[in-house]
Design a protein that fits this description.
Helix content: 55-70%
Largest sheet: none
Structural class: mainly alpha
Number of strands: 0
Shape: globular
Order of helices and strands: HHHHHHHHHHHHHHHHHH
Radius of gyration: 23 Å
Length: 361
């Protein structure tokens, strides 16, 4: 990459700290742009310490779990297993920390979203005392004869994300298939690089063995085990009952965040991962858009912003008042148009946004 490389459009949006600084520029020294972005940060998109720490925990934990599984998969190549046994301590997470460019933007963005969800889940059960009502608001419970199994499965999946531990504590890598595949091949490459140093004559046999183990891990992967997928499953099991707008509000009041996002996504005919990402990482204009599309009043929007404070610590009382004033000015026509655009494929939207950014009107 040239020191004068240009970053415009979707290549930098939401991923690089210099995105705001470089908007509208055609050529700028990359190092200078990074310095400017860090010294003059955009508070609306700043990553706070809790989110950074949680992201590293998810990333390191999933890497540790995949490394452990891959080390155990070499029963078909005992010589490789023996070579890796010379380094019993984890190898991949230290390698990734030293070479973070091994991580693709999609995987890192997903891990940030997982981290944001975890911060939201830590307030589970802390009901909104300002909005009293039924204890459960009509939400399904583990005692429900029809939905109890799905409720318990969601709680167990959420519990895995909430388990305490350091960055090197294994965490079940319940990722979408595309992100899990990137993680598997990243781990395979890191371990293969180490094995090659002790087996310089192994040649293609070593690469073939790592490929075989990688495909075995991918075959056994269950992307439906994650809590976002489990929340979707619960909402599907609820049937027509899930279409109640009151239930959406009850889920938010009871701080049942993933159930709230799954119910909202069903009502808006959007993907629940997309809705979750907009709520925890998107600009506040996205949050306002979702709330208005759900029929939320000014008061509902203020309560939603208060609920999102674990992932948006900059939302002070004064900031919430200011955002509520902007929310009041949203027109239903603009909201309908924006939600309709969100229902189109993500790749299409990304390319269209890129063209709008780099081409004159």
């Amino acid at each position: 990459m040239s020191a004068l490389s240009s970053f415009t459009g979707t290549a930098m949006a939401g991923s690089w700290p210099m995105a705001r600084v470089m908007a509208g520029m055609s050529v700028v020294p990359v190092a200078h742009a990074i310095d400017l972005a860090f010294f003059f940060p955009d508070n609306a998109s700043a990553r706070h310490d809790a989110l950074i720490a949680e992201t590293r925990r998810h990333l390191g934990g999933c890497i540790a779990a995949v490394e452990m599984a891959m080390r155990l998969s070499f029963d078909h190549a005992p010589d490789i297993a023996a070579a890796l046994d010379r380094w019993p301590e984890p190898l991949v997470w230290p390698t990734v920390r030293a070479q973070p460019t091994l991580l693709g933007p999609g995987l890192l963005a997903h891990m940030q979203m997982r981290a944001g969800v975890t911060l939201m889940l830590r307030q589970f059960g802390e009901a909104d005392l300002e909005r009293p009502g039924e204890a459960d608001g009509g939400l399904p419970s583990a005692d429900d004869p029809d939905l109890g199994e799905a409720v318990s499965a969601l709680a167990l999946a959420e519990g895995r994300w909430l388990m305490l531990g350091g960055e090197d504590r294994p965490m079940r890598p319940d990722l979408p298939a595309e992100h899990y595949a990137e993680l598997v091949w990243t781990v395979a490459a890191c371990l293969a690089a180490v094995a090659q140093r002790t087996m310089p004559d192994a040649g293609d046999a070593l690469l073939g063995a790592f490929e075989r183990s990688g495909w075995a891990l991918l075959t056994d992967h269950d992307e439906a085990a994650g809590p976002i997928a489990q929340a979707d499953r619960l909402v599907r099991r609820m049937g027509d009952r899930a279409d109640s707008l009151e239930l959406v509000g009850a889920a938010l009041d009871q701080r049942r965040f993933l159930l709230f996002t799954a119910l909202a996504a069903r009502r808006l005919r959007l993907d629940s991962v997309q809705v979750t990402d907009m709520l925890v990482l998107g600009p506040l204009s996205d949050v306002a858009l979702l709330c208005r599309a759900l029929g939320g009043s000014d008061s509902d929007y203020r309560h939603l912003l208060i609920a999102l404070r674990p992932v948006r610590p900059a939302l002070s009382d004064i900031a919430i008042v200011a955002e509520a004033e902007r929310y009041h000015e949203l027109s239903d026509g603009d909201v309908d148009l924006a939600i309709g655009a969100l229902r189109t494929p993500a790749a299409f939207r990304a390319k269209l946004d890129h063209l709008r950014a780099v081409c004159p009107a």
